[in-house]
User: Fold these one by one.
Assistant:
Number 1:
Amino acid sequence: MTRRPLTLVYFAASRLWRVSMASLRPVDDVGSDDDDAPVVYVILGSQFSAKALLALDAHGIPHRVVFVPLSRAARRLPSDASPTVPQMTHRGAILTDSEDILHHLDDSLGASCFPARVAREASEASVRASDGVLAALVLHYNWVDEPGYRRSMRAAGVRAMPWYVPLCLSGAVVDRLARKARASFARRVRKIVAKTLFDGDDAKADATLADPAETREALVRELEWFQATLKEAPFMLGVAEAPCAADVSAFAQLERLVGTMGDASVPPSLPELASEPRLVRLMAWRKEMSERCPIRFKGKRGGRGGAAR
Ligand SMILES: N[C@@H](CCC(=O)N[C@@H](CS)C(=O)NCC(=O)O)C(=O)O
């Protein structure tokens, strides 16, 4: 095929894909929720959504899940003030950040994401997992790093392509659709890495991110910090009863590197990390987490008045 017809097919495919994405609406909505259960708005496979869902499941809190589309234009969320997921509604409250959701679970729903004995440490570790080097490098390996992107987000995108996109073109269509997002993630990753590791020095961040061995070393070092929070107990910071905020935040991020995001089945972006000799204890904790509280997005739509478990 010459270049021009190929461009046309691919332009038509992306237009169609955009239209079909825009026509996706939340499959359920809070208007029908007349019970007391919280309703969580998620994108399937999102690590921040998984963090909230893990906390709800691990603490036995019945809830309903509403899937929202990837397309920002088509996304209808409880709060207009924030376009991101997760968002959660509960008894008139609207929470628009995963960390706030965890606090709400403790304050109003009887969870113990921040057990009194280690509340400050759990909060610090949770914020570090969600906003620091780990979260940045999860974006890097899923979106920016070419081999990681191909293994994870590109593969997931190809799988999600509608039937009318020929298989031989679907990778190119995904690349085209993901181009802006990938560039924006690259800027975000650089900013976080510069700020957290190099006192804001962008050139040093660039040098690290351009070198796969150095990027991986930065990731392993960050994960060693989380590993050091593991004591005898099954969960971080010596917590025995149920996963705390640190566990759910770190686990949700780690799954985008070595797991499949539970029932969302997103391919891992850096599967070889699972056999890193410096992270043996962390990977044992990860196995324990996936057995005790797997990430569950699906099967929680519930019915009118019905909680979702
Ligand atoms: N600080 C937020 C971050 C949320 C976030 O970045 N969510 C991503 C999904 S993993 C999102 O909504 N991305 C879609 C978009 O930005 O349009 C939180 O912890 O809830």
Number 2:
Amino acid sequence: MNLKLSWCRRRVTCSAEFCQKEISVGNPIIKGTYKTKNGLTIRRYWHPGCWLEAGLAYLHTHPYQKVPGKGRPTLELSQYDKRARRLLTCRRARAMQRIRWLIPRLPDSEGMIDRLYEQIEGIKQEIAKVGGIPKSWE
Ligand SMILES: [Zn+2]
């Protein structure tokens, strides 16, 4: 459904079941168009208030449900593990930042970079124990 809020240019009837009154020219109107499977375009018109009311009524009969499997799954971790994870993430970010800073200063910084990569490897092992290694770290 495509919705558009605009001015009413010709008289139409409000599609809200509880309203069904005329929307007269020059008033704000919500125009809805949608295509059916057989290619027909259906148009609907509402008073903006009626549209909101009908929409809210619909939502109340269809309560919010989190779509399963969408978004990042939350880790089942204790308060303590969550904190540990966050700290490890920060430590790794700091090391990565240092590497980025050092790379243009090669070859003098080669040893330091190696040590930082070792550190990151260690951080990986630690985070594996508190909820696993994040995908982006692989
Ligand atoms: Zn209405």
